[in-house]
Design a protein that fits this description.
One of its GO terms (molecular function) is GPI mannosyltransferase activity. This protein is an all-alpha fold. It is 68% helix and 0% strand. It starts with a helix and ends in a 10-residue tail after the last helix.
Length: 388
Protein backbone atom coordinates (compact mmCIF):
# COMPACT_ATOMS: atom_id res chain seq x y z
CA UNK A 1 0.00 0.00 0.00
CA UNK A 2 1.25 3.49 -0.86
CA UNK A 3 2.40 5.28 2.30
CA UNK A 4 0.28 8.24 3.38
CA UNK A 5 3.09 10.75 3.07
CA UNK A 6 3.77 9.77 -0.55
CA UNK A 7 0.09 10.21 -1.46
CA UNK A 8 0.08 13.63 0.17
CA UNK A 9 3.27 14.69 -1.62
CA UNK A 10 1.87 13.56 -4.98
CA UNK A 11 -1.23 15.67 -4.35
CA UNK A 12 0.93 18.61 -3.27
CA UNK A 13 3.21 18.39 -6.32
CA UNK A 14 0.22 18.14 -8.67
CA UNK A 15 -1.36 21.18 -7.06
CA UNK A 16 1.85 23.18 -7.32
CA UNK A 17 2.16 22.30 -11.01
CA UNK A 18 -1.35 23.70 -11.60
CA UNK A 19 -0.75 26.82 -9.53
CA UNK A 20 2.68 27.46 -11.07
CA UNK A 21 1.08 27.29 -14.51
CA UNK A 22 -1.52 29.87 -13.46
CA UNK A 23 1.11 32.22 -12.02
CA UNK A 24 3.33 31.88 -15.12
CA UNK A 25 0.35 32.61 -17.38
CA UNK A 26 -0.24 35.91 -15.59
CA UNK A 27 3.48 36.71 -15.25
CA UNK A 28 3.87 36.56 -19.02
CA UNK A 29 1.06 39.11 -19.36
CA UNK A 30 2.15 41.32 -16.47
CA UNK A 31 2.81 44.90 -17.66
CA UNK A 32 5.40 47.25 -16.19
CA UNK A 33 4.61 48.01 -12.55
CA UNK A 34 6.13 49.40 -9.36
CA UNK A 35 8.02 46.17 -8.61
CA UNK A 36 8.96 44.57 -11.94
CA UNK A 37 9.44 45.18 -15.61
CA UNK A 38 6.99 43.73 -18.14
CA UNK A 39 6.66 39.92 -18.32
CA UNK A 40 8.82 39.17 -15.27
CA UNK A 41 10.15 35.69 -14.58
CA UNK A 42 8.50 33.54 -11.94
CA UNK A 43 10.63 34.65 -9.00
CA UNK A 44 10.25 38.37 -9.73
CA UNK A 45 6.51 37.87 -10.13
CA UNK A 46 6.41 36.00 -6.81
CA UNK A 47 7.83 38.93 -4.84
CA UNK A 48 5.19 41.52 -5.72
CA UNK A 49 3.26 43.51 -3.14
CA UNK A 50 4.19 42.63 0.45
CA UNK A 51 7.01 40.46 -0.86
CA UNK A 52 8.95 43.70 -1.31
CA UNK A 53 8.36 44.62 2.33
CA UNK A 54 9.70 41.24 3.42
CA UNK A 55 12.73 41.94 1.22
CA UNK A 56 13.24 45.26 3.03
CA UNK A 57 13.00 43.56 6.44
CA UNK A 58 15.34 40.73 5.40
CA UNK A 59 17.96 43.18 4.13
CA UNK A 60 17.56 46.20 6.41
CA UNK A 61 15.56 45.10 9.47
CA UNK A 62 13.17 47.64 11.04
CA UNK A 63 13.36 51.44 11.34
CA UNK A 64 14.14 52.90 14.75
CA UNK A 65 12.24 56.06 13.82
CA UNK A 66 8.75 55.87 12.40
CA UNK A 67 8.27 57.64 9.04
CA UNK A 68 5.77 60.50 9.21
CA UNK A 69 3.84 62.50 6.66
CA UNK A 70 3.55 66.28 6.73
CA UNK A 71 0.56 66.08 9.09
CA UNK A 72 2.45 63.92 11.60
CA UNK A 73 0.75 60.61 10.76
CA UNK A 74 2.77 57.40 10.71
CA UNK A 75 3.10 56.18 7.12
CA UNK A 76 3.51 52.66 5.73
CA UNK A 77 6.66 50.97 7.01
CA UNK A 78 8.25 47.63 7.83
CA UNK A 79 6.80 47.32 11.35
CA UNK A 80 3.58 45.93 9.83
CA UNK A 81 5.45 42.75 8.93
CA UNK A 82 6.40 40.25 11.61
CA UNK A 83 9.98 39.00 11.79
CA UNK A 84 9.98 35.20 11.74
CA UNK A 85 9.63 34.71 7.98
CA UNK A 86 12.16 37.35 6.84
CA UNK A 87 14.63 36.08 9.47
CA UNK A 88 14.43 32.58 8.03
CA UNK A 89 14.75 33.94 4.49
CA UNK A 90 17.80 35.99 5.45
CA UNK A 91 19.39 32.96 7.12
CA UNK A 92 18.90 30.84 3.99
CA UNK A 93 20.29 33.65 1.83
CA UNK A 94 23.44 33.82 3.97
CA UNK A 95 23.75 30.03 4.07
CA UNK A 96 23.27 29.38 0.36
CA UNK A 97 24.06 32.65 -1.42
CA UNK A 98 20.62 32.62 -3.05
CA UNK A 99 18.96 35.95 -3.88
CA UNK A 100 15.96 36.99 -1.81
CA UNK A 101 13.25 36.03 -4.30
CA UNK A 102 14.57 32.49 -4.85
CA UNK A 103 15.18 31.90 -1.14
CA UNK A 104 11.75 33.26 -0.21
CA UNK A 105 9.91 31.08 -2.73
CA UNK A 106 11.91 27.99 -1.72
CA UNK A 107 11.06 28.54 1.96
CA UNK A 108 7.40 29.16 1.21
CA UNK A 109 7.12 26.00 -0.90
CA UNK A 110 8.99 23.97 1.72
CA UNK A 111 6.69 25.10 4.51
CA UNK A 112 3.67 24.54 2.25
CA UNK A 113 4.73 20.93 1.65
CA UNK A 114 5.23 20.47 5.39
CA UNK A 115 1.82 21.95 6.06
CA UNK A 116 0.16 19.57 3.60
CA UNK A 117 1.73 16.60 5.41
CA UNK A 118 0.78 17.94 8.84
CA UNK A 119 -2.71 18.88 7.68
CA UNK A 120 -3.38 15.30 6.60
CA UNK A 121 -2.26 14.06 10.02
CA UNK A 122 -4.45 16.69 11.72
CA UNK A 123 -7.50 15.71 9.67
CA UNK A 124 -6.82 12.02 10.29
CA UNK A 125 -7.33 12.67 14.02
CA UNK A 126 -10.99 13.57 13.42
CA UNK A 127 -11.92 12.08 10.02
CA UNK A 128 -11.46 8.83 8.12
CA UNK A 129 -8.25 8.42 6.13
CA UNK A 130 -9.94 8.89 2.76
CA UNK A 131 -11.79 12.01 3.89
CA UNK A 132 -8.60 13.40 5.46
CA UNK A 133 -6.85 12.85 2.13
CA UNK A 134 -9.55 14.71 0.21
CA UNK A 135 -9.44 17.53 2.77
CA UNK A 136 -5.73 17.73 1.93
CA UNK A 137 -6.61 17.93 -1.77
CA UNK A 138 -8.87 20.90 -1.01
CA UNK A 139 -6.15 22.57 1.05
CA UNK A 140 -3.59 22.15 -1.74
CA UNK A 141 -5.90 23.31 -4.55
CA UNK A 142 -7.69 26.02 -2.54
CA UNK A 143 -8.49 29.34 -4.27
CA UNK A 144 -5.87 31.13 -2.13
CA UNK A 145 -3.22 28.40 -2.47
CA UNK A 146 -1.04 30.53 -4.82
CA UNK A 147 -0.09 32.46 -1.66
CA UNK A 148 1.73 29.32 -0.49
CA UNK A 149 4.43 29.66 -3.16
CA UNK A 150 5.22 33.36 -3.25
CA UNK A 151 7.33 35.62 -1.02
CA UNK A 152 4.69 35.83 1.71
CA UNK A 153 4.67 34.41 5.25
CA UNK A 154 1.37 32.52 4.91
CA UNK A 155 2.80 29.05 4.30
CA UNK A 156 5.20 29.33 7.26
CA UNK A 157 2.36 30.50 9.47
CA UNK A 158 0.10 27.70 8.22
CA UNK A 159 2.79 25.15 9.12
CA UNK A 160 3.14 26.30 12.72
CA UNK A 161 -0.62 26.81 13.10
CA UNK A 162 -1.28 23.26 11.90
CA UNK A 163 1.38 21.91 14.24
CA UNK A 164 -0.09 23.87 17.17
CA UNK A 165 -3.58 22.52 16.44
CA UNK A 166 -2.23 18.98 16.08
CA UNK A 167 -0.54 19.22 19.47
CA UNK A 168 -3.67 20.78 20.98
CA UNK A 169 -5.88 17.93 19.80
CA UNK A 170 -3.40 15.50 21.33
CA UNK A 171 -3.22 17.64 24.50
CA UNK A 172 0.55 17.98 24.38
CA UNK A 173 0.39 21.40 25.99
CA UNK A 174 4.04 21.63 26.98
CA UNK A 175 5.25 21.09 23.41
CA UNK A 176 3.08 23.96 22.17
CA UNK A 177 5.10 26.80 23.71
CA UNK A 178 7.85 27.15 21.06
CA UNK A 179 5.36 26.44 18.28
CA UNK A 180 2.97 29.18 19.41
CA UNK A 181 5.88 31.60 19.87
CA UNK A 182 7.06 31.20 16.26
CA UNK A 183 3.49 31.16 14.91
CA UNK A 184 2.60 34.43 16.65
CA UNK A 185 5.73 36.14 15.30
CA UNK A 186 5.03 34.97 11.75
CA UNK A 187 1.49 36.30 11.29
CA UNK A 188 -0.85 38.01 13.80
CA UNK A 189 -2.60 35.10 15.52
CA UNK A 190 -1.53 34.89 19.17
CA UNK A 191 -4.62 36.61 20.58
CA UNK A 192 -7.01 34.55 18.47
CA UNK A 193 -5.24 31.34 19.49
CA UNK A 194 -5.41 32.42 23.14
CA UNK A 195 -9.19 32.77 22.80
CA UNK A 196 -9.39 29.32 21.22
CA UNK A 197 -7.37 27.92 24.12
CA UNK A 198 -9.68 29.62 26.64
CA UNK A 199 -12.66 27.97 24.95
CA UNK A 200 -10.75 24.67 24.99
CA UNK A 201 -10.21 24.96 28.76
CA UNK A 202 -13.85 25.88 29.40
CA UNK A 203 -15.06 22.98 27.27
CA UNK A 204 -12.76 20.50 28.99
CA UNK A 205 -13.88 21.74 32.40
CA UNK A 206 -17.56 21.49 31.47
CA UNK A 207 -17.12 17.94 30.14
CA UNK A 208 -14.74 16.68 32.83
CA UNK A 209 -17.36 14.18 34.00
CA UNK A 210 -16.88 12.04 30.89
CA UNK A 211 -13.43 13.30 29.92
CA UNK A 212 -11.19 13.75 33.01
CA UNK A 213 -9.34 17.07 33.25
CA UNK A 214 -6.59 16.52 35.83
CA UNK A 215 -4.97 19.42 37.64
CA UNK A 216 -1.67 19.16 35.76
CA UNK A 217 -3.52 19.52 32.44
CA UNK A 218 -5.58 22.43 33.80
CA UNK A 219 -2.34 24.23 34.75
CA UNK A 220 -0.63 23.35 31.46
CA UNK A 221 -3.56 24.42 29.25
CA UNK A 222 -4.06 27.69 31.15
CA UNK A 223 -0.32 28.36 30.95
CA UNK A 224 -0.15 27.93 27.17
CA UNK A 225 -3.26 30.09 26.85
CA UNK A 226 -1.69 32.94 28.82
CA UNK A 227 1.55 32.49 26.89
CA UNK A 228 -0.32 32.75 23.58
CA UNK A 229 -2.01 35.96 24.76
CA UNK A 230 1.41 37.36 25.71
CA UNK A 231 2.81 36.41 22.31
CA UNK A 232 -0.18 38.13 20.75
CA UNK A 233 1.07 41.49 22.03
CA UNK A 234 4.82 40.78 21.96
CA UNK A 235 5.39 42.40 18.56
CA UNK A 236 3.54 45.52 19.71
CA UNK A 237 5.85 45.66 22.76
CA UNK A 238 8.97 45.11 20.63
CA UNK A 239 7.95 47.91 18.28
CA UNK A 240 7.39 50.15 21.30
CA UNK A 241 10.79 49.29 22.74
CA UNK A 242 12.64 50.01 19.49
CA UNK A 243 10.78 53.14 18.35
CA UNK A 244 9.72 54.63 21.67
CA UNK A 245 6.09 54.78 20.53
CA UNK A 246 3.62 52.49 22.29
CA UNK A 247 1.32 52.64 19.25
CA UNK A 248 4.06 52.08 16.66
CA UNK A 249 2.63 48.80 15.42
CA UNK A 250 -1.04 49.76 15.44
CA UNK A 251 -0.31 53.17 13.87
CA UNK A 252 1.63 51.41 11.14
CA UNK A 253 -1.23 49.01 10.46
CA UNK A 254 -3.69 51.92 10.37
CA UNK A 255 -1.55 53.61 7.72
CA UNK A 256 -2.61 50.95 5.22
CA UNK A 257 -6.30 51.75 5.62
CA UNK A 258 -5.86 55.54 5.62
CA UNK A 259 -6.24 55.66 1.83
CA UNK A 260 -9.71 54.18 2.30
CA UNK A 261 -11.13 55.92 5.38
CA UNK A 262 -8.52 58.44 6.46
CA UNK A 263 -6.70 58.53 9.78
CA UNK A 264 -8.17 57.44 13.06
CA UNK A 265 -7.77 55.25 16.12
CA UNK A 266 -8.01 51.48 16.30
CA UNK A 267 -11.39 50.82 17.90
CA UNK A 268 -12.36 47.11 18.08
CA UNK A 269 -15.05 46.08 15.57
CA UNK A 270 -15.20 49.59 14.08
CA UNK A 271 -13.32 48.68 10.84
CA UNK A 272 -16.30 46.77 9.47
CA UNK A 273 -18.62 49.68 10.19
CA UNK A 274 -16.13 52.00 8.48
CA UNK A 275 -15.92 49.59 5.56
CA UNK A 276 -19.68 49.63 5.11
CA UNK A 277 -19.49 53.41 4.90
CA UNK A 278 -16.66 53.23 2.36
CA UNK A 279 -17.70 50.32 0.15
CA UNK A 280 -21.45 50.84 0.36
CA UNK A 281 -21.64 54.03 -1.75
CA UNK A 282 -19.12 52.59 -4.24
CA UNK A 283 -20.25 49.00 -4.70
CA UNK A 284 -23.81 49.47 -3.44
CA UNK A 285 -25.17 48.64 -0.02
CA UNK A 286 -27.53 46.18 -1.70
CA UNK A 287 -24.41 44.16 -2.70
CA UNK A 288 -21.95 44.75 0.15
CA UNK A 289 -24.24 44.08 3.11
CA UNK A 290 -25.79 40.85 1.75
CA UNK A 291 -22.32 39.51 0.84
CA UNK A 292 -20.95 40.20 4.32
CA UNK A 293 -24.02 38.84 6.09
CA UNK A 294 -24.16 35.86 3.75
CA UNK A 295 -20.56 34.94 4.48
CA UNK A 296 -21.05 35.17 8.25
CA UNK A 297 -24.25 33.13 8.09
CA UNK A 298 -22.62 30.53 5.85
CA UNK A 299 -19.60 30.31 8.13
CA UNK A 300 -21.82 29.83 11.18
CA UNK A 301 -23.98 27.21 9.49
CA UNK A 302 -20.89 25.26 8.40
CA UNK A 303 -19.36 25.50 11.87
CA UNK A 304 -22.44 24.02 13.55
CA UNK A 305 -23.47 21.63 10.78
CA UNK A 306 -22.98 17.87 11.19
CA UNK A 307 -19.92 18.21 8.92
CA UNK A 308 -18.49 20.93 11.15
CA UNK A 309 -19.25 19.10 14.39
CA UNK A 310 -17.33 16.04 13.18
CA UNK A 311 -14.16 18.15 13.28
CA UNK A 312 -14.46 18.28 17.06
CA UNK A 313 -14.61 21.34 19.29
CA UNK A 314 -11.01 22.57 19.08
CA UNK A 315 -10.78 23.13 15.31
CA UNK A 316 -14.09 24.96 15.46
CA UNK A 317 -12.93 26.99 18.46
CA UNK A 318 -9.92 28.10 16.44
CA UNK A 319 -11.91 28.96 13.32
CA UNK A 320 -14.50 30.94 15.27
CA UNK A 321 -11.88 32.71 17.39
CA UNK A 322 -9.83 33.74 14.38
CA UNK A 323 -12.85 35.07 12.50
CA UNK A 324 -13.87 37.05 15.59
CA UNK A 325 -10.33 38.48 15.70
CA UNK A 326 -10.62 39.57 12.06
CA UNK A 327 -13.97 41.20 12.77
CA UNK A 328 -12.41 43.08 15.68
CA UNK A 329 -9.28 44.53 14.08
CA UNK A 330 -9.08 44.22 10.28
CA UNK A 331 -10.49 46.58 7.67
CA UNK A 332 -12.19 44.48 4.98
CA UNK A 333 -10.88 44.89 1.45
CA UNK A 334 -9.31 42.63 -1.17
CA UNK A 335 -6.60 41.31 1.18
CA UNK A 336 -9.31 39.97 3.48
CA UNK A 337 -9.46 36.85 1.28
CA UNK A 338 -5.82 36.14 2.14
CA UNK A 339 -6.47 36.83 5.81
CA UNK A 340 -9.09 34.07 5.78
CA UNK A 341 -6.46 31.43 4.90
CA UNK A 342 -5.93 30.38 8.58
CA UNK A 343 -9.45 28.94 8.81
CA UNK A 344 -8.32 26.19 6.42
CA UNK A 345 -9.23 23.43 8.95
CA UNK A 346 -12.81 23.94 7.73
CA UNK A 347 -11.82 22.24 4.47
CA UNK A 348 -12.26 19.11 6.59
CA UNK A 349 -15.97 19.91 6.89
CA UNK A 350 -16.43 20.50 3.16
CA UNK A 351 -14.49 17.32 2.34
CA UNK A 352 -17.01 14.94 3.93
CA UNK A 353 -19.62 14.36 1.19
CA UNK A 354 -18.51 11.33 -0.81
CA UNK A 355 -20.18 12.15 -4.13
CA UNK A 356 -17.58 12.04 -6.93
CA UNK A 357 -19.43 14.79 -8.80
CA UNK A 358 -19.39 17.01 -5.69
CA UNK A 359 -15.69 16.42 -5.09
CA UNK A 360 -14.61 17.03 -8.67
CA UNK A 361 -16.78 20.14 -8.82
CA UNK A 362 -15.18 21.49 -5.65
CA UNK A 363 -11.67 20.97 -7.04
CA UNK A 364 -12.57 22.59 -10.37
CA UNK A 365 -14.18 25.54 -8.59
CA UNK A 366 -11.08 25.88 -6.40
CA UNK A 367 -8.80 26.04 -9.43
CA UNK A 368 -11.11 28.58 -11.03
CA UNK A 369 -10.90 30.52 -7.75
CA UNK A 370 -7.11 30.52 -8.05
CA UNK A 371 -7.35 32.08 -11.50
CA UNK A 372 -9.82 34.67 -10.26
CA UNK A 373 -7.78 35.57 -7.19
CA UNK A 374 -4.48 35.91 -9.09
CA UNK A 375 -6.19 38.10 -11.68
CA UNK A 376 -8.00 40.30 -9.16
CA UNK A 377 -5.45 40.52 -6.36
CA UNK A 378 -1.93 39.48 -7.46
CA UNK A 379 -1.72 40.65 -11.08
CA UNK A 380 -0.94 44.38 -11.16
CA UNK A 381 -3.06 46.39 -13.57
CA UNK A 382 -1.94 50.03 -13.51
CA UNK A 383 -2.95 51.79 -10.28
CA UNK A 384 -4.23 48.67 -8.57
CA UNK A 385 -6.51 49.06 -5.54
CA UNK A 386 -6.94 45.29 -5.00
CA UNK A 387 -3.83 44.17 -3.06
CA UNK A 388 -3.55 40.48 -2.16
Amino acid sequence: MTPWWLRVLVIFIASRAVTTGILLFFAERQPLNAWTGPSPDYFDFARLWDGHWYFIVAMSAYPTELPMDAAGHVTENAWAFMPAYPIVVRFVMLLTGLPFDVAAVAISVGFAAGTALLFYKLMALVLSDSTALFATVLFCFAPLSPILQVAYAESMHAFFLTLALYLLLQRRYGMMFPVVAVMALTRPSGLAFALALLLHVIHRFMTRGRDPFPLREIVASLSIGMFSALMGVTWLLIAWGVTGSFTAYTDTELAWRSSYVGWGELVPFSPWIQAAGFWGPRAGFELVVPLAVGFLVGFTVLLFSPWGRRLGPDLRFWSGSYLLYLLAVFFPQSSTFRLLVPIFPLWGALAQPRSAIYRWALVVLSIAGQVGWVYIAWFVDGYDWTPP
